[in-house]
Structures are given as structure tokens and as C-alpha cells.
Design brief:
By secondary structure, the chain is mainly α. It is about 70% helix and about 0% strand. It contains five helices and no strands. It comes from Zea mays. Its main location: cytoplasm.
């Protein structure tokens, strides 16, 4: 039989290591605000990656048809969202946070 103190230690480790969904959502929202402060030099490709991840995290899989060929901007946004189709909300949030952090770090490094 496992001593209760060991069970308690293992339980506490799992509680400490796994962030709560509320914390993850809060961090996602904070990084969505930070994304608005990205420099104008941020590439369209990076902006589209963020767009796709944001939509996947907040809406889920794309459920509309692909915009027509003459709607270039809307089509690019749709393609970016479609590229991350199937990711869970949690995965999309985590990837979004990581991408925003990378872009902010790159922006800070380029101004140093």
C-alpha cells in the first residue's frame, strides 16, 4: 500500500504542474492584447498565423466556404484558419501564446 503522504505529494505535484483552464484563458487573452502592440514590421505571414490560431482557439474549426479568388485578404485569412483545423482549443491557445512571445522577443531584439 502507498503511504498517504506519497499520494498527497504526487497529487500536489500534478496540481502545481497543470495550469488551470481559467489561467490559460486569461494568459491567452493577455497575449491577444499584446499582439495588438506588435510593430508594423510584423510580416503578413506571421499575422496570418496568429489570425488562424486565434480563430481556432475562439471559434473552433472553420465552418464557412473558402472566399472567392477576388477576395484575396479574406481568402488568405480563411486559408490560415483552415491550416490549423483540427487543433484543440487548448493547443491553439498555447500555440498562439508561443507565437506572440516569439514575435515580441524578435521585435525587442531588433530594436536593441
Amino acid at each position: 500500500m502507498v503511504p498517504p503522504s506519497v499520494v498527497a505529494d504526487v497529487w500536489m505535484e500534478s496540481v502545481v504542474q497543470v495550469p488551470s483552464r481559467a489561467n490559460e484563458t486569461e494568459e491567452f487573452e493577455e497575449h491577444a492584447e499584446k499582439a495588438k502592440t506588435l510593430p508594423a514590421t510584423t510580416t503578413n505571414e506571421s499575422k496570418l498565423v496568429l489570425y488562424g490560431l486565434y480563430k481556432q482557439a475562439t471559434v473552433g474549426d472553420v465552418s464557412t466556404g473558402r472566399p472567392g479568388i477576388f477576395s484575396l485578404k479574406e481568402r488568405a485569412k480563411w486559408d490560415a484558419w483552415k491550416a490549423v483545423e483540427g487543433k484543440s482549443k487548448d493547443e491553439a491557445m498555447a500555440d498562439y501564446i508561443t507565437k506572440v512571445k516569439q514575435l515580441l522577443e524578435a521585435a525587442a531584439a531588433s530594436t536593441s
